[in-house]
Amino acid sequence: MVISIAVLAVGSLFLLLRPKGRGLPPVEAPPEPPAPTLEEPAKAGPSEEEGGATTTLPPPPVAPVEELLKAPEIEIPLPSAGRMVRLRSRLARSQNMLGRGLLELLSRDRLDDDAWDEIEETLITADIGVSTTRAMVEDLRTKVKVLGTRTPAEVRKLLREELLTQVSPELDRTLRTEPHGERPAVVLVVGVNGTGKTTTSGKLARVLVGDGKKVVLGAADTFRAAATDQLQTWGDRVGAATVRGPEGGDPASVAFDAVARGIEDKADTVIVDTAGRLHTKTGLMDELGKVKRVIEKKATVDEVLLVLDATTGQNGMRQAQVFAEVVNVTGIALTKLDGTAKGGIVISVQRELGVPVKLVGLGEGPDDLAPFDPEVFVDAIVGD
Ligand SMILES: Nc1nc2c(ncn2[C@@H]2O[C@H](COP(=O)(O)OP(=O)(O)OP(=O)(O)O)[C@@H](O)[C@H]2O)c(=O)[nH]1
Hints:
eight-stranded mixed beta sheet; 52% helix; binds guanosine-5'-triphosphate; GTPase activity; receptor
């Protein structure tokens, strides 16, 4: 008995002292299991919270994960200055049609009536408008006569000057977004649905945030539920509050609340996206008139921005005209200028509505809305 106990004791001692061996999990196992549980959640993302793993973690790694879940990342877009230069290649279609076409025609040795007809056609096809086209052709004819033989550089200079005159670089294109003391500036965004109105409101919020402004968005397009969500998404990305109302609710009441929120939050600018359905002219007038009146109980409407889709041509122009008759439009945001060869609409819309193009949409990206720069526009069309 004593012997067998001694044998067992010696045997156990031998087994315990053996450097490594199979079949001994009880000795080595206990210190091991916690190691992976401690390390894995630390490396993994927020979804690793379940299973009690995080409860065994020391506090430091847990806090950042929670913060990450609570606060979505706020984007700070780059300032708007120079955006049009960066995006000028997007005008390639207009350049090919208008610029290259005209340069080629004007460089011909002999400019006979047929050539002038072609020039006229090119200008009209690019949506410059009939009366402006006639005036331009007249002007170009006189200048070409004076020049006589023309070098390519002279032709380019001639065309550049002519286009620039028509784009009216002297117009004031400042977007009035500066607050008045305690009260924010208010930008009312109007236009036919589908022109990119909500998108433009959202992109404009980014432009202003990029320029260091605090913005509140008002989703007064209560007619289309998706527009509200869409606007809120734009706002959330740049940390701009979005004031919304019930679907089908009163747009004027949303506009009022948005301005009130802007005052409360000491915002610089409130952007109000409207529905502006073009059912009847009187209906439109009533709706937008009410929105404006209600805003004016608390602030002033500094800018009425009419959104116009550059690809819709004369049809879009007619709709724009109705809006211009109903509200006092102060600026035009011309969208989808990247997707059309009809860059001439910049000229015709300004002519026909008597309002400057202040912003241009040059793509679907969030920062593809740029303050309109006439020189950059004309240079992009005629090429360097
Ligand atoms: N290529 C291009 N696409 C644009 C531009 N502006 C807007 N869009 C696109 O046009 C598409 C349709 O926009 P819309 O249907 O007008 O949508 P919306 O902006 O909500 O317009 P509303 O119905 O008036 O609220 C979207 O995919 C936009 O990204 C632009 O300047 N260039």
